[in-house]
Design a protein that fits this description.
Shape: globular
Helix content: 10-25%
Radius of gyration: 17 Å
Distance between the termini: 20 Å
Number of helices: 4
Length: 263
Amino acid sequence: MTLRWVPGWNGLTEPEAVSYVAAVEAADGQELEFGVAKAINDFVLGCKNDGIWNAIKASCILAGARTLNGALVPLVGTAPTNYNFVSGDYDRETGLVGDGSTKYLDSNRNNNDDPQDSNHNAVYATDRGTTAGMRIIGGNTAVYGTGDNVIGSGSNNVFVRQRNSAANASLGIVTNNSLLGASRSASASYIARISNTSTSISQSSQSPSSADVRIFGGGSGGEAIQAPFNGRIAFYSIGESLDLAALDTRVSDLITAIGAAIP
């Protein structure tokens, strides 16, 4: 039997969470634990209270669901296209792991769908990966171009671009269980966040490149995945500018609560 959540029933109050849980259960073929469903509801409610929910335009919780199909149900926006991930790559508590070779997600949201000076990209990495030069999320060409967005992992640091073609901003070594994100709300600078720390980067914005944002790698449509990521991701979000510190808190609480609710 599939549970059908009703707003207000047993603490699930947010219509978006109710619809999402129902869609995940349909994809999984069975109901979620109530604690998992409640964690999702609390995340949506928390994001609304923080004023960041409406800025999220494409997002997946890559944890909590019982199956890979369930994990690829979008929380917001269009479902991603799966390139080469299989069930064994998915863990309900820690998310989806890349292979640093052929596996990635196409978010099906174009880098230029959001305004030039109102945009964010973020992932929650439960494993930072091991290979240098990886692109974790981004809408960009194979060779960095005008208006690229990319968050990647170098040999000694995380590097970020947010609607600019100037040099990467280096942010230090990311820890596991960390939000990696960048958000631009002004033409002259943007905010980057890793390992619970936000940094203001002075780089002027440029017109965004036209390329679907990819997760677990970079490059634009029609070309092979570029610099694929071999770490593990439990959440991603793409959209307009938002408070990355608030998103960090909400996602961290979400993943912690999901882990606690799974037997």
